[in-house]
Amino acid sequence: MQPFLRLFCGWVAGLSLAAATMLATSATAHAATVQSATPTPVGPVAASETRYTNGMNIVTEQTDTDKLIAMDHVQNLRDLGGLIGANGHRIAPHRLYRSGNPALGTPADFARLASLQLDDVVDFRATSEKTSAEAAFAERFPWIADPVLAGDLSPASVVPMLKRSTPQQMHQFMVDLYRRFPQDYQPQFARFLKLAEADKTLLYHCTAGKDRTGFATVLLLSALGVDRATVMANYLESNRHNAAGNARAVAQLQKIGVEPEVVQPLLNVDPDYIGAAMEVIDTRYGGMQHYLTDVLHVDVEKIRRGYLVAVTE
């Protein structure tokens, strides 16, 4: 399983339309034609379903917990402002943003991002996920690279693996991947939360803004005292916000022989995935608050003072 994880980890954590297009272009010329099994598809979680995952009651309602900001070529950009945190206080608007890769946005996208007056932009992607076309973004915004999930993400390595995998293997891969987040990448997530301690206006992202960004959001919202059901609902909203891009990605990959049922678990977020990470936090580290304060050494009160505001009638 280790070579499999090493080859897939960064890529599957944020497969976007751009990544899928790159794969399709390269693999048409180079990838081997390995047949893939096609067992029962694993689709996204149904709206308003409640599922028990790893002993936790996870609410999966498709409700809006934050504000989606419409962009041309930046997916899943959301303002976390308005969520209820500790002591009934709300997260201040226009301070904390999550997204997919913003670096390939249009000039209009860059203008919108500039209007957010960001202090820092945190990038969780591996170097192999980036392209030279992102230079303009790097020149304009305070971009901090702090990779989570480095490895060989080239199409030559990834596509043959996809072709000989099953949906069940991909689902289990994602569960195993999420288990690694709270154990293997503590320095990266601690540094991210230290930026929040400094009361900065932040945008943080990976490729699709769903897995690495999703886990970072779970930590941040938990530090702010948002209840677990709302944290989980916020995580699951990526399925809705990424749906159109995911459909295009599936179509591109299907052209090179990757079955939709195989790639779908990589494109979706799922209660099983985040449930696996939370189980590690609860069982190995004694719960979220112990994990934040004793493992990541986060000053939760400082983060709350920076971002929470009293609710006014």
Structural summary, described in words:
It is a single chain. This protein is of the alpha/beta class. It has one domain: Alpha-Beta Complex (Protein-Tyrosine Phosphatase, Chain A). The chain has helices at 2-12, 17-30, 107-115, 135-140, 155-163, 167-184, 186-197, 212-223, 228-236, 238-241, 243-254, 260-267, 271-284, 288-295, 300-307, and strands at 50-53, 56-59, 67-68, 78-79, 90-91, 96-99, 120-123, 143-145, 202-205, 308-309. It has a 6-stranded mixed sheet with strand order 3-4-6-9-7-8, covered by helices on one side. It has a two-stranded antiparallel ribbon with strand order 1-2. A two-stranded antiparallel ribbon has the order 5-10. Helix 4 links the parallel strand 7 (120-123) and strand 8 (143-145). Helix 2 runs parallel beside helix 11, helix 6 runs parallel beside helix 12 and helix 6 (167-184) packs parallel to helix 13. 44% of the residues are buried. Residues 1-62 have low confidence and may be disordered. InterPro entries: Prot-tyrosine_phosphatase-like, Tyr/Ser_Pase_IphP-type, Tyr_Pase_dom.
